[in-house]
Amino acid sequence: MNSDQMKGKFKQLSGEIKRKWGQITEDDLKQAQGSMEKLVGKIQERSGDQRQAIEDWLRSQGLNE
User: Fold this and answer.
1) What would the pLDDT profile of 21-52 be if each residue is shown by its tens digit?
2) Sign of CA dihedral 49, 50, 56, 58
3) What does the pLDDT average to over 9-21?
4) What is the distance between the alpha carbons of residues 6 and 11, in angstroms, rounded to a whole number?
5) pLDDT at residue 65, as a whole number
6) Percent of the chain whose predicted confidence (pLDDT) is above 70
7) In the chain, domain spans
8) pTM
9) 25 Cβ partners below 8 Å, 6+ apart?
10) 55: closest CA among 25, 42, 28?
């Protein structure tokens, strides 16, 4: 997946991410946009979920590095 595809998919999934992890804000998503590493870190920081579980869920949604 190239950078443009990831950004497009990220936009599509933003609402789903906020529903799954209610602690994630629009500002968090803006800061992490385009960087899987930052996104996983923000979700982990806010939710306390394990990094591997977050990465697995994102991959299952079609958002891979």
Assistant:
1) 989 998 998 888 878 899 899 999 999 999 99
2) positive
3) 87
4) 9
5) 54
6) 95
7) 3-60
8) 0.78
9) 18
10) 42
What is the spatial distance between Cα 5 and Cα 52, in angstroms, rounded to a whole number? 22
* Alpha carbons 12 and 22: distance in angstroms, whole number: 17
Residue 36, phi-psi category: left (phi > 0), alpha (psi -120 to 50), beta (remainder): alpha
53 CA to centre of own chain: 12
- Please report where in the chains the tokens 């299952």 appear, as a residue: 60
The residues near 42 (Cβ < 8 Å, ≥ 6 apart) are 24, 28, 29, 31, 32
